[in-house]
Amino acid sequence: MVVGILKESFVLYRIDLKRTTTHSLYGESIQKEYKTPLEVFSRINVESGAPEMRTSAGISKQGMGELKASMHLSHLEDLGLLHKDGNDISIDMKKGDFIGHKGQFYEIWDDGYSQIQNQQSYAGDRRAFLIILAKEVDRDVFNGI
Questions:
Q1: pLDDT at 130 > cutoff 90
Q2: Nearby residues of 52 by Cβ (< 8 Å), 6 or more positions away
Q3: Which of the 8 DSSP states describes residue 49?
Q4: Does residue 29 surpass a pLDDT of 60?
Q5: Which among 17, 55, 76, 111 is least buried, having the fewest CB atoms inside 10 angstroms?
Q6: Is residue 129 classed exposed, middle or buried when 0-12, 13-18 and 19+ CB atoms within 10 A define those classes?
Q7: Which long-range contacts (CB under 8 A, 24 or more apart) does 20-25 make?
Q8: Is the full-model pTM beyond 0.85?
């Protein structure tokens, strides 16, 4: 049903924490392993920032955009990204995962998990959708798979 209504989509690249090896002291990883990418339908809004001048040589940073995606929880459940355990829900989309949309890549910095407002609920008591925020990244940070 959501696919027929929302014609916009993005590709979700989730980091596979079980297969990714991390540094024993710092807990960081240079080479990350990813789960199978998924196409997620949502309402998408991208806002681009103005270019910044940092040096006399010219523009050192392009205007990096911010992506805002609103997704229905029923669609996330259909994709296997939403898991219910009684009243508790967990979402398999975390901060640090990446999004591909129209040739650009974004890193999720707000996974929307803590958003508990009437605007994201149905009849004020049942959560109906989720909003995630992601910041555009350079191709040396993430370049798709």
A1: no
A2: 59, 60, 61, 63
A3: P
A4: yes
A5: 55
A6: buried
A7: none
A8: no
